[in-house]
Design a protein that fits this description.
The chain is globular. The chain has two domains: about 10-20 and about 90-220, Rossmann fold; about 20-85, DNA polymerase, domain 1 (Orthogonal Bundle), CATH 1.10.150. The protein contains nine helices and eight strands. It has about 230 residues and is α/β, with parallel strands linked by helices.
Length: about 230
């Protein structure tokens, strides 16, 4: 299913959309839990929280949020552990490299817009070998406001020299859809991402849903998606 005129650019959320970072994030959380004498959590319970970053993972593992007096210290220690082994098991989602190659071969530029801070985004993208391929990388601290505010998406379009209406955004969280809608971009919800069990992306208001990265090809209008 195509969503209309072919976009001039496709912008991707990072964690849970472009890259499967859950294995390394889960390892960092379990390392932190072990340091505090707490039992490890099953990967299946951690994965749905990865798109919510340190805040979601600390909420899962320790039952605390920002106002808690221990939050800042635990967050910093979690990020230190994660940064140390940032890209041990993280990789592009299955089929995503084929999607990027198809975009590049068809002259459609692509970029990254994430809420992940730049000091983690930059080394991760470099370790994955895609930093030279991405036309832009906008991190969570690049702009004054992060998603669901549209500022980072508007900034990406500006960096690319494109009208927002000619860009397509792909993300695995409702804040991605909200940011794209506020920016005036078409948007695809990545159902293969880090969704909590009770989450139903059909209610987010996206233009299309992708249950596998290769489905993006048909949605964008490049060619029918491959069999997988």
């Amino acid at each position: 299913m195509s969503i209309g005129p072919r976009p001039l650019s496709v912008l991707f959320d990072l964690d849970g959309t472009l890259v499967d970072t859950a294995p390394d994030m889960a390892f960092a959380l379990n390392q932190l839990l072990a340091e505090h004498g707490r039992p490890s959590l099953a990967y299946e319970s951690i994965r749905p929280q990865v798109s919510n970053g340190a805040r979601g993972l600390l909420g899962l593992g320790f039952g605390i949020d920002v106002p808690h007096p221990d939050y800042d210290g635990l967050r910093q220690r979690f990020l230190d552990i994660y940064q140390r082994d940032l890209c041990v098991h993280s990789s592009l989602f299955d089929g995503m490299n084929e999607v990027l190659e198809a975009l590049e071969n068809d002259g459609i530029i692509w970029g990254i817009v994430t809420n992940k801070p730049g000091w983690l985004t930059t080394p991760l993208v470099q370790a994955l070998g895609i930093s030279e391929r991405a036309a832009c990388v906008v991190s969570g601290d690049t702009c004054a406001r992060a998603k669901p505010h549209p500022m980072s998406l508007l900034h990406a379009a500006d960096l690319l020299g494109l009208e927002v209406a000619s860009c397509l955004y792909v993300g695995d969280a409702i804040r991605d859809v909200e940011a794209a809608r506020a920016a005036g971009m078409r948007v695809v919800a990545a159902e293969y991402g880090y969704l909590e069990p009770e989450t139903d992306p059909r209610h987010w208001g996206a233009d299309a849903l992708a249950s596998h990265p290769l489905e993006l090809l048909a949605i964008i209008g490049l060619r029918p998606h491959a069999t997988y």
